[in-house]
Each structure stands twice: as C-alpha cells, then as structure tokens.
C-alpha cells in the first residue's frame, strides 16, 4: 500500500468534486428501449422515504431519521437545487461493498469470545432488515500474507514442498466460514501480495519480480489456491494478479510491470484457468489511478484480453474519473475499486467521511465501478497486527479490544451503500438542477441505484461547509431534505 501525505489528500479532495462528474460523455444508457414510466409514487405510511444520516460532528452516525419524507406533486416552486432521478437510464450492475478481510482482521476477530464475535459478524454481514446491520456484501482476501498479517508466509515457502493452505487454517479460514454462514452469497476477491520468495528474482518476500522460468509454476500455484479454497467450501469469485504491482517496498510485495503481467496472463495464467475449468474472474492491475494505461495496454492485446474480466484500482494517486478512461477504452470489461486506507493520524472523522464518500463511494460508482472497498476490516487498538515494515497507521473499519468493538469512519462510509445497494442493483441516472431546471455541478455530490426488488436508493453528500436544502424529484413528485455541511444521507423508497 502507498500512503498519501495530508497535503496530497487535500489536493485530491479538491479535484474530487470535479473528477467525480467527469463522466458525462463516458456514460452510456442502457441500449434496450426505455420501459414506460411507472406510476408516480404514493404515500404508504408515516414516511415513504427512509433517510439514514451521518453528520461530520458524529451527532448522527448512520442513524435512521424520524422524519416524514413523502413525495408530493410539485405544485409550488422553491429555489432549491433539485436532484432528478431517472430509472429508465441505467449503467453498471453492482457486485457489492465492503473491505479487505486480512489475516490480521481474522486474527483479532478470533480473540473475541464466540458470542461477541458472532454478534459483530452478524451486524457486519447480515443483509436482514434490522436497523443494526450493515450488509457488507463483498470482501477482498489476501492470498498468502499481506502487510497486515501477523507473519509473512506463502502456501509453498520451500521449493518442491507441497502446496498447503495450512497457514490459513488456524483462524483465517474459520472466520471466513463464519461469515459465509451469515451471508453465503458474499462475493470474494483474492489478491496476492507476493509469490513464494524462491520464485522471485531477489529471493525475498519484499520487492523483486517473478522469474520468467516460474511463470507456469506460479499460474499453477494460483489455480491450486482457488481449487483448495473451493474444497473448503469457499468460492473465489475474482482474482487480482498482484496487489499494487508498481510498489515493491511493502512487506510483502512484488513489482510486475505491465508487459510482464500481459505475458503472464496471455501465456500462463489464462490458459491455466481455462485448462482447469475455473470460473474465477481474472482482474488486472489493482493499483493507483495515475496509471490507467497499465490495464489498457494489456487489454489492447486481444490474446491477453480474452482471459480478462476487468481491472481494479486504488486511489493513492490519480483521480477517480480516470476509471472512465479505462471504461471508454474497453467498455466490454468491468471495473473494480478494491482498496482505500484511512490513516490513523491522517485527518479527522469529518474530513475522512467527506473525502471517502466523494471518491470511494460516489466517485467510483459514477465512474463505472462494480464494487467499492475500503481497506482493513479489523485491527486492535494499536492497528496491529502488521508485518515488519507493514502499515502501522492503517485505521480499520472496526477496532477490537477484548470483546468490545469501536466503529471507525470506514464502517460508516461503507454502511451508507452496503445496507441498501444490494448485489445486482443497477446504477441509474441522477442529475442536479437549479431552479431554472439547468444542470449544475456543485455543492451536492450524488449517485442513485435501483435494486433488483425495485427500490430506489440515492446517496447525497453535502460537500460545502454550510447547510444545504434540496429537493429529490422522481416521476414529477418531490421530497425536500436538508444536510449539514459535510453530511451524507442515504434515501430509500
């Protein structure tokens, strides 16, 4: 993982308000004929629209509001900005929202009592209607150690030894099975930080590159992982080939240039997956948005592209709208947003809430991502465990101390989407207009979805410092709501 300075984070946030909207010419509506508009919504109870709020001062933290929000005919005019929802124009289908379940996450969760752990996992992963659940629907896994593992390991540390998942059997796989018991349909993406050291040019878990003579053997290693996890009842939906392939300074890590990754996919990994009849998706890159040319260059080769599902991104460099560059270059391939850390000493709750909602949630979704993942799910009060040289200031979504869990800002960032935007929802068109019905790009950031059951979900961020009152208009009727400066609201009907 590459860590930003506060100044870099500020610069990226100032870009985000523009970047998140830089998709206008890249968005394409569903080519199928638009269905006839449904009847306008009618009032069905005290509040037709459920409104969940997080305020930057933490006076509300993903809290359902006791307000009557009911759509009414727009018979009177006001000067509010109006957010128009158009469900006849659809974009990408959504796979889910969540975190990386690192080995370290499982380690600290395993230290809790069985009852306390079960309660916390139910809160995190249940997709029930209870107000105290957030419905995490997507997890990334470290394949071998990450920098937030208690130790550095692979599944074949010694050349010639048998491949074995034994390092994950003590608590990683058991915790994962407990999660799957709660949500059997959660999507899992695996990412290696490094192959076994003996396969690399420097014989070290840190840096180096994959030796060409081990390309086939490493492809077989990745196939074996997916097959052995399946044998444990764990289906790996997608595999990124290398976490942060342009950053060789982490422990563990490996450098894999674009040309190397292209050759590995085209000549080794893709054919190995096909020979093994694996349905696991192959996902490119898994690094920063300052280099969209990396995955584009690989997909420009038809022989490599045939094996590729899409590409994955982090945002420690670049701007979020560059995801649309990749979409526009290869609109038949998928995009994923797979990691963003919160620094334990990097800003406060308010600034992190605003930046991450603007970029990781709203920005990634408006730029064609199928998922949005924050970084580490759980750690202890000292942000442990981590490897020697690993991240010691990565603030998890949940800090675990004994049987107590403290919910940090990443918990709320993901909750605002994961609870309501369930897998197979689709993004729909949302447009902000002024009182003259002219589209504007200011003050309110937004994204909308329609779920597979027909519910509408709209996320709105007030990225100003003052209160903003605005309308949400759907099928000619409106509700009016107010958000404090820096607040985020999710509206569901």
Lay out the secondary structure.
Blueprint: H1 6-19, E1 50-54, E2 63-64, E3 72-73, E4 81-93, E5 96-101, H2 103-110, H3 114-125, E6 138-143, H4 166-169, H5 172-182, E7 187-192, H6 215-231, E8 238-240, H7 258-275, E9 281-289, H8 293-299, H9 302-305, E10 310-318, H10 323-329, E11 334-339, H11 349-366, E12 369-376, E13 378-379, E14 398-401, E15 404-407, H12 409-418, E16 426-433, E17 444-450, E18 456-462, E19 468-474, E20 477-483, E21 488-492
Parallel strand pairs: 4-19, 5-6, 5-12, 6-7, 7-8, 8-9, 9-10, 10-11, 11-12, 13-14
Antiparallel strand pairs: 1-2, 1-21, 3-20, 4-16, 14-15, 16-17, 17-18, 18-21, 19-20
Helix pairs in contact: 1-11, 2-5, 6-7, 7-8, 11-12
Number of strands: 21
Structural class comes to alpha/beta
Shape: globular
Number of helices: 12
How are the strands ordered across the major sheet?
2-1-21-18-17-16-4-19-20-3
- What value does the average pLDDT take? 92
- Largest sheet data: 10 strands, mixed
Care to describe what's here?
By secondary structure, the protein is of the alpha/beta class. 26% of the residues lie in helices and 26% in strands. The chain has a ten-stranded mixed β-sheet with strand order 2-1-21-18-17-16-4-19-20-3, covered by helices on one side. It is globular. The protein starts with 5 loop residues before the first helix and ends with a strand.
């Amino acid at each position: 993982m590459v860590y930003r300075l506060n100044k870099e984070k500020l610069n990226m946030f100032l870009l985000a308000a523009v970047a998140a909207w830089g998709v206008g010419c890249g968005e394409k509506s569903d080519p199928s004929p638009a269905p006839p508009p449904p009847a306008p919504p009618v009032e069905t109870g005290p509040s037709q629209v459920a409104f969940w709020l997080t305020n930057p001062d933490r006076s509300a933290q993903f809290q359902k509001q006791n307000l009557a929000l009911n759509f009414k005919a727009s018979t009177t005019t006001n000067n509010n900005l109006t957010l128009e929802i158009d469900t006849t124009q659809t974009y990408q289908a959504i796979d889910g929202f969540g975190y990386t379940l690192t080995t370290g996450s499982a380690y600290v969760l395993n230290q809790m009592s069985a009852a306390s752990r079960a309660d916390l996992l139910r809160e995190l992963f249940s997709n029930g209607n209870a107000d105290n659940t957030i419905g995490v629907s997507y997890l990334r896994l470290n394949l071998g150690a990450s920098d937030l593992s208690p130790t550095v390991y692979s599944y074949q540390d010694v050349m010639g030894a048998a491949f074995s998942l034994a390092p994950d059997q003590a608590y990683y796989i058991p915790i994962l099975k407990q999660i799957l018991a709660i949500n059997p349909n959660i999507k899992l993406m695996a990412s290696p930080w490094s192959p076994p050291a003996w396969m690399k040019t420097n014989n070290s878990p840190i840096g180096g590159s994959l030796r060409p003579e081990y390309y086939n053997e490493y492809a077989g290693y990745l196939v074996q992982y997916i097959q052995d996890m399946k044998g444990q009842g764990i289906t790996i939906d997608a595999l990124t080939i290398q976490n942060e392939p342009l950053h060789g300074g982490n422990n563990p890590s490996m450098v894999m240039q674009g040309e190397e990754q292209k050759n590995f996919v085209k000549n080794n990994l893709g054919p190995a997956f096909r020979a093994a009849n694996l349905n696991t998706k192959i996902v490119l890159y898994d690094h920063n948005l300052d280099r969209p040319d990396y995955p584009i260059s690989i997909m420009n080769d038809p022989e490599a592209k045939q094996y590729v599902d899409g590409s994955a991104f982090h945002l420690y460099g670049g701007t979020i709208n560059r995801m649309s560059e990749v979409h526009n270059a290869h609109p038949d391939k998928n995009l994923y947003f797979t990691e963003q850390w919160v620094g334990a000493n990097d800003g406060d709750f308010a600034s992190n809430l605003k930046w991450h909602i603007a970029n990781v949630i709203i920005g990634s979704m408006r730029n064609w991502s199928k998922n949005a993942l924050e970084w580490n799910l759980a750690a202890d009060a000292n942000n442990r465990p981590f490897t020697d040289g690993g991240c010691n200031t990565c603030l998890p979504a949940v800090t675990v101390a004994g049987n107590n869990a403290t919910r940090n800002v990443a918990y709320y960032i993901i909750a605002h989407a994961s609870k309501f935007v369930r897998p197979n929802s689709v993004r729909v068109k949302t447009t902000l207009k002024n009182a003259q019905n002219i589209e504007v790009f200011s003050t309110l950031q937004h994204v909308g979805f329609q779920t597979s059951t027909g519910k509408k979900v709209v996320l709105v961020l007030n990225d100003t410092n003052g209160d903003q009152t605005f309308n949400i208009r759907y099928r000619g009727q409106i509700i009016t709501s107010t958000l404090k400066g820096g607040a985020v609201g999710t509206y569901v009907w």
